[in-house]
Write a structure and sequence with these properties.
The protein has about 750 residues and is α/β, with parallel strands linked by helices. The chain is about 40% helix and about 15% strand. It has 26 helices and 21 strands. Helix 9 packs across helix 10, helix 11 packs across helix 17 and helix 24 crosses helix 25.
């Protein structure tokens, strides 16, 4: 196949045979290592000097006490209120664990350890060697409280005196002063005294790595700093669990955690985990391998019954609480009767007038509180038809998307359908819905004032966001989770949509609407593991082969600035560049620098940005909103994100705003552009996966150019490399609360 790498109009249309990096690599690589084999790698994020001459990501400054007046703060404030309520629910779970009477040996010791922690004591030693059963306690019905509907400014950051005191401790330990504000925010009151008493608490600051904390501890403790220090083992246990959460796990197998601790020179790994559990920094779970199996019965001769096989998991408290709250909310929906706004005859009449999978979706929603809907871009017409029907029957129906761009795209689709129905104001983002900045508001009980909620981009729900959403639904409401299961999973911990699809506890409707055209054919093939040769007479798919990363950057700039606008008719501002990671010779940093120089050159008058720059704004971890720079003044950097003005304080620009001509696939998920240029540099071959390719290729609406530099690695990855597994507890929790759907 002959292609001209210089121009799109002369390139041969077809399917690429290149490689790209799995977007899961964006999460801290150490998190994946802790979950899989305990190995460690360096993060891709920007770094700054840290203790002991090491480097730490610039994100270490995240959490500093800087007040920013934006929709992001309203969202975070609302989420804090929800999390406080979940904490109160946890405190109400005071009943003892109703199990363990038949345990003995190590399993009995483990249960004793859990109960010791619950009563304020310390667990006995060596309790993590063998598993034993311990069914989870059922959570009480959630108690909702009224939520604010207006943006609430968060409390200010740590006091300057506290930051100064922490800075002096950091200076004594050779750590950079830039960590003072985030450390004071992370540790709270008396942060300086806490750090002097336990230098490894520095690991609670985002971006600080174990070797840096070890250097800080050596400088403060001198000869008293030892690898077997209990404080070190406890801090490393918490750090590994945090890294696992960044990689998507809600808990870790005990064996994976102890292996990772051993590789960091912790002599007694079980004692380290035991200490973390005793101090309340981690929770231990005994989950039955088969929760549906009957309880073992004693033998006829009086012999004790065999213990049920279980696995031991260790997890962070926040992940455990969120996952249990999410399971409770899902079970409440599944086991409840939906509010009947509209008779069964009305629903059936509407379903009879529809066709195919749209009719199936209407019938499922008519009689069930929770319904799953799967499909690609074309399938969005079915949730739109559902919402229009529900509104016509008198239901207060709303849709929520992952991104503002997805909101606008779905609102346009909804408004374009025939017949009466709700307007575009009935579509919100999930973040806006939870914060109160968008959506129907809250009722007197604190629940969302709606009868039907359709959440699009459902694979992007993590357990914490999912728990907040389920807690916010009123009794009798219907919830539809809709999305494409083949895209990348959420940036946060959990895989909610995939776990629900596998649980089989509610109706699942698969759309039979294929995405049209050569692009739809190509992406659908990737979804089933086949990289097909497609006919693209309109140059919908074009391959641009390159030899190295430097040539990849050059060809990408030429495509965006010249070839695609001239040959395809899509202007540069409607073209997105997608590449595997931020670092490297063809990562987002290098590509954005080259694209800025060509498309919007300037001196970078405010933190490297100029008016007109395309940016990627991250108001909260795991969320990216594309936008443009409007201006900069004493208040900060003024952005326009999907038509919404946003002001980012000067102190937060470095950590929350990047140039946005080039994005990673995780940053781009949930949005689509008329044209996409996917850059697959040669060094990305080892990290390619089917979900990454599917997500990247699927961001293109009319045209896809693939800058191809890895030969046959792409078809091999599409065929063989699936999503990396995540350890979650949601399937077990659902199995114990909700029966499988018939």
């Amino acid at each position: 196949m002959s292609t001209d790498p210089e121009t799109t109009e002369n390139a041969e249309p077809g399917t690429p045979g290149a490689a790209a990096e799995d977007e899961a690599q964006e999460a801290d690589a150490t998190a994946e290592a802790a979950a899989e084999d305990g190995s460690t790698q360096a993060t891709e994020e920007e770094s700054t000097p840290a203790a002991g001459g090491q480097s730490t990501p610039a994100a270490a400054a995240d959490g500093a006490g800087v007040t920013e007046k934006s929709e992001a703060e309203a969202e975070l404030a609302a989420q804090r209120v929800e999390r406080e309520r979940i904490e109160r629910r946890k405190a109400e779970k005071a009943a003892p664990v109703d199990s363990g009477a038949k345990l003995s040996g190590k399993a009995a010791d483990l249960l004793a350890a859990v109960r010791a922690v619950e009563s304020g004591g310390r667990p006995v030693a060596t309790v993590f060697e063998e598993p034993g059963p311990a069914p989870r306690r059922p959570a009480p019905e959630p108690v909702r409280r009224p939520q604010p509907t207006q943006a609430v400014a968060p409390a200010g950051g740590p006091a300057p005196e506290a930051v100064g005191a922490v800075g002096r401790v950091l200076a004594d330990g050779g750590a950079p002063d830039a960590l003072a504000a985030p450390a004071a925010a992370a540790l709270g009151e008396d942060a300086d005294e806490q750090l002097r008493a336990d230098p490894w608490l520095l690991l609670r600051v985002g971006g600080v790595r174990p070797e840096q904390a070890d250097g800080f501890a050596r400088a403060l403790l001198g000869a008293d700093c030892r690898p077997d220090d209990e404080r070190r083992g406890r801090a490393l246990t918490g750090w590994l669990l945090e890294q696992a959460a960044l990689a998507g796990h809600t808990a870790l197998e005990m064996s994976a955690l102890t292996t990772a601790l051993a590789q960091r020179s912790v002599p007694d790994t079980e004692a380290a985990v035991q200490s973390a559990v005793a101090e309340g920094e981690a929770l231990v779970f005994q989950d039955a391998l088969d929760p549906t199996a009957p309880e073992p019965q004693p033998g006829e001769d009086g012999e004790e019954a065999e213990e049920r096989p279980v696995r031991i998991l260790i997890g962070l408290e926040r992940c455990a609480l969120a996952e249990e709250s999410l399971a409770d909310g899902l079970a409440r929906l599944i086991n409840s009767v939906p509010k009947q706004d509209g008779s069964a005859e009305d629903w059936e009449q509407a379903a009879a007038a529809a066709k195919g999978s749209t009719a199936e979706l209407l019938r499922a929603v008519a009689g069930h509180g929770l319904v799953l809907h799967t499909g690609g871009e074309a399938s969005l017409a079915e949730p739109a038809a559902l919402l229009r029907t529900a509104a016509g029957l008198g239901l207060r129906a709303w849709a929520a998307t992952h991104t503002p761009g997805g909101r606008e795209r779905f609102a346009a689709l909804w408004a374009g359908q025939e017949g009466p129905g709700p307007d575009a104001a009935s579509v919100a983002t999930v973040a806006g819905l939870l914060s109160g900045a968008e959506g129907p508001g809250r009722d007197a009980d604190g629940a969302l004032d709606l009868d039907l909620l359709v959440v699009l981009d459902a694979p992007q729900l993590d357990v914490e966001t999912g728990a907040l959403l389920l807690e916010s639904l009123p009794d009798g409401a219907r919830l539809v989770l809709a999305g494409d299961p083949a895209v990348l999973w959420s940036a946060g911990p959990g895989r909610v949509f995939a776990d629900l699809l596998g649980a089989g506890i509610c109706p699942r409707i698969a759309s039979r609407r294929p995405d049209p055209g050569p692009l739809g054919e190509l992406v659908s093939g990737v979804g089933i593991g086949e990289l097909q040769q497609v006919e693209a007479p309109g140059k919908e798919v074009v391959i641009v082969p390159v030899r190295d990363a430097g040539e990849a950057v050059h060809r990408t700039v030429q495509l965006v600035a010249d070839s695609v606008p001239r040959a395809i008719g899509v202007p540069s501002e409607q073209t997105v560049v997608i590449t595997p990671g931020h670092g490297g010779a063809a990562g987002t940093r290098a590509l954005n620098a080259a694209l800025k120089e060509r498309l919007n050159p300037g001196p970078g008058r405010f933190g490297g940005f100029d008016p007109g720059d395309r940016i990627a704004y991250s108001p909260a971890p795991g969320r990216t909103v594309p936008g443009t720079v409007v201006k900069a003044d004493a208040d900060g950097l003024h952005l326009s994100c999907a038509g919404t003005p946003v002001v980012v304080a000067k102190e937060r620009v470095e950590q929350s705003v990047r140039h946005g001509w080039a994005l990673t696939a995780h940053q781009a998920v949930g949005d689509r552009w008329p044209a996409a240029v996917v850059v697959l540099p040669g060094d990305a071959a080892q990290a390619l996966s089917r979900p990454w390719v599917y997500t990247a290729f699927g961001r293109a609406g009319r045209h896809l150019s693939v800058v191809h530099g890895v030969e046959q690695a792409l078809p091999r990855a599409v065929a063989d490399v699936l999503a990396k597994p995540r350890t979650t507890r949601l399937p077990l929790l659902l199995a114990t609360q909700a029966p499988a759907a018939g």
